[in-house]
Amino acid sequence: TKIIRFFKNLEKTTNFISNDIVFHSTPQLVNQQFTLFVLVHGLQATHEDMLVVQKSLIYMFPNACFLNSTCNEDKTNEDIMLMGDRLAEEVSKKLSTFPFSRQIKKINFICHSLGALIVRAAIFSQKSYNFRSLLNTFVSFGGVHAGIACSRPGMFDAGVWILKTMTGSISLSQLSLTDGSNPKNSLLFKLSLDKGLGYFKTGDGLYE
After folding, report:
1. 98 and 104 in contact (C-beta within 8 Å)?
2. CA 73 from centroid of its chain's CA atoms
3. Which helix (H) or strand (E) holds 115?
4. What pLDDT is stored for residue 20 in this prediction?
5. pLDDT tens digits, one per residue of 78-100
6. Fewest CB atoms less than 10 Å from the CB: which of 84, 136, 199, 203?
7. How do residues 129-185 score in pLDDT, each as one tens digit?
8. How far is the C-alpha of 24 from the C-alpha of 13, rounded, in Å?
9. Measured between alpha carbons, how far is 169 from 79 in angstroms, rounded to an integer?
């Protein structure tokens, strides 16, 4: 399938190290370069929703290093930019606590649904400045890059309206392009003008 071929190609240019490995300062590790995978869940989801993806990657890359993001759990109704700030901080913290942080040379983001916009907001944030140069691959599953304003009318729109009314969701307003009096004042338009994904060397929007 497309996803398997993609990760097999990625494997050719990536070195990995396990989250659970016991680190020793051997010459081999000191000279090794590492890659970090960051997994980001979507709307009203948790890191557990990304475990299927993580387990698939572990099967293909037994020694992979992951950050399965938890910073926005139970907070996905908040401002997408705020969620992006949290993600940027979480990645920075991971990099600072990794035993061989200076040897991490690539960061790959894998995200689902709203997670795609959270990643873009994280890259937009000044808090990502220290790791932008490491960005390598961006993969999104069903990423709502264009929002949901042009979705099919009827039951879907009614469901979105009910959710926005019941939860006071800021992120749903941003996805609907109703967070400004004019679509050009919306967050998604603002993100579209930013270099954002241009920092990544490769990218793929699977199942958009």
Report:
1. yes
2. 13
3. helix 114-124
4. 37
5. 999 999 999 999 999 999 887 76
6. 203
7. 999 999 999 999 989 888 876 655 665 565 566 666 667 789 888 988 888 788 888
8. 24
9. 8
Compute the distance between CA of residue 163 and CA of residue 172 in angstroms, rounded to an integer: 8
Please count the helices (runs of H) and the strands (runs of E) in the chain: 8, 5
pLDDT tens digit sequence for 5-63: 555 555 544 444 444 333 334 445 556 777 889 999 999 899 999 999 998 887 876 65
Contacts of 195 (CB under 8 A, 6+ apart): none
How large is the angle between the packed helices 51-60 and 2-11, nearest 10 degrees? 50
Residue owning tokens 């009827």? 154
CB 118 within 8 A of CB 170: no
Q: Which phi and psi angles does 123 have, rounded to 5°? A: -70, -35
Q: Determine the Cα–Cα distance for residues 145 and 204; give it in Å rounded to an integer.
A: 13
With H, G, I as helix, E, B as strand and everything else as coil, classify residue 204: strand
Question: Which amino acid type is present at position 30?
Answer: V
